[in-house]
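Task: sequence design from structure.
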């Protein structure tokens, strides 16, 4: 993997500010409280739209892949020189922390936990590239990408910003400025919280446990259908939705 040093902390913070200030302007975001030191929790969770991506094994990854799981989601790209590798190292620590303490699955409701890395650089991030890249961090992580319009339709509603920065050769040598937060998607496929950088993995793992304890029962017992996911749907209904 070709690595070029390129640091853009100011742009990353600016993008994050735009995300908080505009993309989620209609959502009440409570002031930070000691209950979740590393997280910003949304009063009204934001449903993700339907989407169809391809994962690092060449298999279709859709919104149904979020059902009955808490998902740490991060958007980046494999040619990213610093932000993405550091983020995935932190996510690997969080994942390992959950495994070590037997917290990867919420036993009461059978709700799992997963990490999904979505590339915003489909032009260079082929299936093979994603497979090789994600294996450096954790073989259980999911890496996926898709057509630019699909990625745009997924990122806009949840306030993920990114933009291409041309290099000397715009077709192959370019950077992508992108949001650096970890998004926490609940078992109904809704953005429930986000963790802004700088990330503190141990604190994030602890705050995640508290969030899961507070909101999992709401997700598992709700009778409200958010967009496409309703926990308890059987396989037959899932197949019908995939055929639409």
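Answer:
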């Amino acid at each position: 993997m070709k690595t070029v040093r390129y640091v853009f902390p100011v742009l990353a913070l600016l993008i994050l500010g735009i995300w908080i200030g505009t993309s989620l302007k209609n959502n009440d975001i409570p002031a930070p409280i000691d209950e979740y030191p590393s997280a910003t929790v949304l009063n009204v969770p934001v449903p993700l739209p339907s989407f169809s991506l391809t994962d690092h094994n060449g298999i279709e990854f859709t919104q149904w892949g979020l059902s009955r799981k808490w998902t740490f989601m991060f958007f980046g790209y494999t040619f990213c020189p610093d932000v993405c590798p550091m983020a995935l190292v932190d996510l690997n620590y969080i994942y390992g922390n959950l495994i070590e303490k037997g917290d990867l699955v919420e036993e009461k409701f059978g709700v799992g936990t997963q990490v999904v890395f979505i590339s915003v650089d489909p032009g260079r991030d082929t299936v093979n590239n994603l497979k090789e890249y994600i294996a450096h961090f954790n073989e259980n992580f999911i890496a996926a990408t898709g057509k630019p319009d699909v990625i745009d339709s997924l990122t806009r509603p949840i306030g993920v910003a990114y933009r291409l920065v041309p290099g000397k050769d715009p077709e192959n040598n370019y950077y992508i400025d992108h949001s650096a937060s970890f998004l926490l998607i609940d078992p109904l496929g809704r953005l429930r919280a986000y963790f802004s950088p700088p990330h503190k993995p141990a604190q994030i793992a602890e705050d995640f446990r508290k969030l899961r304890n507070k909101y999992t029962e709401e997700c598992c017992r709700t009778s409200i259908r958010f967009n496409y996911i309703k926990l308890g749907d059987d396989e037959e209904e899932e197949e019908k939705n995939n055929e639409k």
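Residues 155 and 161 are 7 Å apart (CA to CA).
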